[in-house]
Amino acid sequence: MTKSILLVGVGGQGTILASKILTTGLMQEGYDVKMSEIHGMSQRGGSVSSQVRYGEKVESPVIEIGGADILVSFEKMEALRWLKYLKPEGKIVVNDCRMDSMPIIGGKADYPEGIVEELKSKVPTTVIDADGEADKLGNTKVANIILLGALVKKMGLEDIDWKKIISENVKEKFIDLNIKAFNIGLNLA
């Protein structure tokens, strides 16, 4: 049975690195894995999405509307934007983080209120202050790895050697920090 994971965020949040680590771990575990990325205007704080599908045999990397088992959102408005891609029985892991888009910064749109409450009213939602937890570790750039840890826990993929995979995919001086971040995510989920 194929599982579909949708990771969404804003440019610069590390969505693609988290997807790469996830994909590597799933492949090393022997799954057939397909991944597709959409960068959009990621250099300017635009939407970024990564679709990861895994199972015994995966035909397509594309997750259709209503096809994702889990949605991991690095920014809460992105969770709302991508909600239609979640299966009716799907789950959300959302970073309680607000990043204003260009229309909001420019005064052409308002940031919606009550996003987390709306998500919780529709699907099982795990809210994590990944940015706050990363800040406690002294580096906000590891919020993505905290969210990856939470995703791994929610998907029941803890048996994979994530420590090794993280070590192979981040700069040497940041290995310990990223492993700590990953473990925080596991514990928060």
From TrEMBL:
Q: Where is the Pyruvate/ketoisovalerate oxidoreductase catalytic domain?
A: 11-186
Single Gene Ontology MF annotation: oxidoreductase activity, acting on the aldehyde or oxo group of donors
Pfam families tied to this protein: POR (PF01558)
Question: Which InterPro entries does the annotation name?
Answer: IorB_Oxidoreductase, Pyrv/ketoisovalerate_OxRed_cat, Pyrv_flavodox_OxRed_cen
Answer whether the UniProt record assigns the keyword Ribonucleoprotein to this protein: no
Which keywords accompany this UniProt record?
Oxidoreductase, Pyruvate
Superkingdom per UniProt: Bacteria
List the residue ranges forming a coiled coil, or say none: none
Name of this chain's protein: Indolepyruvate oxidoreductase subunit beta
- Natural source organism: Clostridium fermenticellae
Supply the source organism's classification. Answer: Bacteria, Bacillati, Bacillota, Clostridia, Eubacteriales
